[in-house]
């Protein structure tokens, strides 16, 4: 469902140039300082990257899922931390409002999200509720025209920067499952919110996660997403479904970058008197990687197109997240192998990618959760 091929091509060209000329040269600095430089953040805002998926009527670019996937293929060709900065706003941070929010909620928040003025985080995971998201314990108790929120959220991407949280909390304590959960928009300035110390992570330096602690935090009832209690888990699942296609597309981009670097190295590095790319065992690693990247690219585009067509893509979104993230891990591993000793030291950046991409198999639903979603859907459909 690409609406205007010329505009899209021009936009993709500008993203490609931005990645090559501004982001790739800054990769080492971001890894060393654990910060994305302010001028790069400003450029991202100016390019409209924070508003990729917000409709044009709210100041965004209003991209379709297919168009978004094409942008993510380009954005993936550098350190994933850059994507993380605007990706949580574009994806899981804002989609709850976009998919299930009331018109007043959309009017109030989407323009600020689209411009990058507000960074959005998705607050679902808790110390005791990860894969079993429906068991979350954070509570939101109604008191007059407010909800009083108490609880701790964990590993919340961009929490230190967030101006807004899409928060999942239990409004019905008698319902311990999915039906007792509601989604809220919580502004950063609301009293009763504490952000923990940024987590020390394996990779993705420059992208920060932290605990978010709510203590008697008073959230206006007007910020209950969709204005109806008990719908929050479904909102979270819809948001994650879309997010999984987005992550699959990023995995494709990063894998393409790693493969390109590994190929360049294999063609230049000589052993036994010739470039190692001439050796069939190295060629096998290159070819297997190419094949898998191509398959993941086709899957992400197909799932995106189906979603744009209004199909239920629960299965396809999980299939492409599962395949693309696992594929990305395999490509990272082969790339390190092709680089050999140089792949294990930090100079070439490939060991950094190897650590960075490990997260793709974990967040927005682990590989095992994707397997579970796929198999459950298969069984459900066969039952009908
Ligand atoms: N779209 C809309 N609704 C959905 C949905 C989707 N993609 N997936 C599930 N739902 C609905 C179900 O239809 C069900 O509604 P009803 O009660 O009306 O039938 C409700 O949500 C509960 O679904 P289900 O019974 O499948 O919930 P479970 O507790 O069994 O959990 C899994 C399902 C495990 C798939 C879910 O908890 C999950 O995705 N976990 C991983 C969470 C995750 O990705 N965390 C990452 C953190 S964010 S970086």
Structure description:
It is a single chain. The protein has helices at 5-23, 27-33, 38-47, 65-75, 80-100, 103-115, 232-268, 280-308, 314-339, 341-344, 350-356, 367-383; strands at 120-123, 139-143, 146-157, 164-170, 181-187, 193-195, 209-220, 270-271, 274-275. The strands form three sheets. The chain has a four-stranded antiparallel β-sheet with strand order 2-3-7-6, with no helix packed on it. The chain has twelve helices and nine strands. The two termini are 30 Å apart. The chain has 384 residues and is of the alpha+beta class. Residues 122, 124-125, 131, 133-134, 178-179, 233-234, 237-238, 240-241, 314, 363-365, 369, 372-373 line the site of coenzyme a persulfide.
Range of helix content:
40-55%
| Uncertain segments | none
Distance between the termini: 30 Å
Average of per-residue pLDDT values: 96
Query: Strand share of the residues?
Result: 5-15%
Task: Provide the succession of SSEs.
Answer: HHHHHHEEEEEEEHEEHHHHH
């Amino acid at each position: 469902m690409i609406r205007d091929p010329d505009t899209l091509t021009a936009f993709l060209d500008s993203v490609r140039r931005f990645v090559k000329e501004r982001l790739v040269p800054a990769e080492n600095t971001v890894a060393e300082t654990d910060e994305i430089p302010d001028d790069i953040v400003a450029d991202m805002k100016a390019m409209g990257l924070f508003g990729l998926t917000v409709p044009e009527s709210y100041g965004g670019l209003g991209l379709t899922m297919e168009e978004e996937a094409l942008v993510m293929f380009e954005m993936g060709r550098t350190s994933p931390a850059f994507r993380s900065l605007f990706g949580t706003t574009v994806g899981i941070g804002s989609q709850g409002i976009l998919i299930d929010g009331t018109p007043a909620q959309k009017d109030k928040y989407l323009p600020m999200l689209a411009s990058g003025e507000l960074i959005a985080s998705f607050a679902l995971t808790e110390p005791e509720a990860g894969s079993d998201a429906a068991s979350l314990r954070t509570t939101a108790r109604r008191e007059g025209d407010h909800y009083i929120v108490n609880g701790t959220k964990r590993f919340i991407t961009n929490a230190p920067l967030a101006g807004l949280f899409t928060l999942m909390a239990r409004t019905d304590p008698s319902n311990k499952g999915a039906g007792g959960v509601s989604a809220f928009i919580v502004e950063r300035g609301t009293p009763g919110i504490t952000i923990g110390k940024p987590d020390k992570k394996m990779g993705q330096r420059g992208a920060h996660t932290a605990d978010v602690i709510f203590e008697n935090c008073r959230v206006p009832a007007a910020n209950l997403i969709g204005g109806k209690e008990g719908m929050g888990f479904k909102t979270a699942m819809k948001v994650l479904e879309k997010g999984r296609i987005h992550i699959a597309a990023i995995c494709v981009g990063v894998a393409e970058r790693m493969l390109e670097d590994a190929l360049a190295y294999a063609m230049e590095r000589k052993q036994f008197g010739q470039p190692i790319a001439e050796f069939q065992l190295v060629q096998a690693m290159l070819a297997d990687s190419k094949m898998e990247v191509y398959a993941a690219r086709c899957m992400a585009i197909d799932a995106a197109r189906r979603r744009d067509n209004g199909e239920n893509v629960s299965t396809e979104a999980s299939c492409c997240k599962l395949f693309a993230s696992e594929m990305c891990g395999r490509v990272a591993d082969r790339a390190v192998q092709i680089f050999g000793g140089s792949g294990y030291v930090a100079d070439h950046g490939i060991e950094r990618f190897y650590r960075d991409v490990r997260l793709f198999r974990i967040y927005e639903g682990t590989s095992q959760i994707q397997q579970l979603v796929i198999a459950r859907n298969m069984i459900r459909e066969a039952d009908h």
